[in-house]
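Ticket #4471: structure export looks truncated?
Reporter: QA, pipeline team
Priority: medium

Steps to reproduce: submit the single chain below to the structure queue and open the exported record.
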Amino acid sequence: MRRLVVMGNWKLNGSKEMVSNLIKDLDVELAKVEGADKVGVAIAPPVMYLDLAEKLIADAKSDIILGAQNVDLHHSGAFTGDISVDMLKDFNASYIIIGHSERREYHKESDEFVAKKFAFLKENGLTPVLCIGETEAQNEAGETVAVLTRQLDAVIKTQGVEALEGSIIAYEPIWAIGTGKAATAQQAQDTHAAIRAHIASYSADVAAKQTIQYGGSVKPGNAAEMFSMEDIDGALVGGAALNGASFAGIVKAAADLSK
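Actual output as written to the record:
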């Protein structure tokens, strides 16, 4: 059985006070969740707060993995505003989000550029959390699988399917991010199954072990049904991750299925 992973993407939200309160609240709430230790629980605060988050996590009783929202392709140099793998490792950040639709749209990151980030993270011992997803127009045109496989193949065809081992794929339908809309559990399952089948066309073994999260308006109220689906291995959570109780509620849904 694949381990369920629940990761909070805090996006452009935070302050010293907010980060401190949220991590402390989350630690308290996770202590109430039986079996939380069987779930991979991760957070990705803004890079400005990695130092504070690392210190708070070290003092927490719960097992919380520190992640980040972006990475550059260089170790150092004249790359103003960018973040290196060495900096991320310096703060013990290990789960690194790449390919998020907001990066693809607002920063014009192509499939090929995201694939290079994927390779760079793997080469440097960090875990890529590779986001893939389609727009509402693409979904309505029946292009979902074609879009997702194109995004995946940017990695597979340049690095080999084995490069996916140890990584996380996060399927995030763009039309469900921050909109309050969410795919039904069955819709998400069908898409996850298609993703896994595509990976299996290269390697059944890699596909069977691949963690595939769902992201897009995941809340405590719909998490349990999502996680009960065969091919949904947790969630990449946005807004609901900004509250300790709601995020812990999603972790609980995963923990209940992991007992």
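Status: closed, not a bug. The export was complete when the record was re-opened. Leaving a note from the reviewer for reference: The two ends are 11 Å apart (CA to CA).
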